[in-house]
Amino acid sequence: MFDEDDVRFRTHELVHFLREIAPQKRFDLQSLVALGYSNGANLIGSMLLLCPELLAGAALLRPMQPLSEVPAAPMMNTEDQNTPQNPVPVFFAPGQRDPTVDAATDRYASLLTSRGFKLTRYDAPASHTLTPLDVAQAASWYQSHFTHVG
User: Fold this and answer.
1) N or C: which end of the chain has fewer CB within 10 A?
2) How far apart (Å, rounded) are the C-alpha atoms in residues 123 and 60?
């Protein structure tokens, strides 16, 4: 079980940092694709739920739903990138034999989908550890959504 108050605090701390550092380092925050494994995936998942407009995409490797009490979905305006016409892609890779992830994985995937994220799910034939196939699947997902030939 997560200390959800701490998850929310750390999520807002990270969001504040990203918003502060983006102009200093001259990168477009809305072009950011986050990748996280285990607790990193949980923090990024929390960002998706609390600040869905922030990221261009996310790869969640061995995720668990970070918040049991999920805030209501914020209203999106036409300038937000996560709209039905432009859903934010999310790569979702739980391990089929992961003893640290509970049975709520399907519910979490459904929650992200219901929030308008374009979920690509890969149920890895593995435990909590990552495999070369995880990396290959995530790279393929990234290339199909974020690299443009031409």
Assistant:
1) C
2) 12
Write the pLDDT tens digit of every residue in 39-49.
Answer: 999 999 999 99
Question: 6 vs 147, which has greater pLDDT?
Answer: 6
Question: Which residue carries 């990270």 as its tokens?
Answer: 14
Buried b (16+ CB within 10 A) or exposed e, 10-49: bbeebbeebeeeeeeeeeeeeeebbebbbebbbbbbbbbb
Q: Tell me the whole-structure pTM to 2 decimals.
A: 0.89
What lies within 8 Å, CB to CB, of 112 at 6+ separation is 45, 48, 90, 92, 119
Q: Residue 68's closest CA among 49, 41, 40, 82? A: 49
Mean pLDDT of the chain: 89
> What sign has the CA pseudo-torsion 64, 92, 129, 142?
negative
CA nearest neighbour of 138 among 70, 89, 87: 89
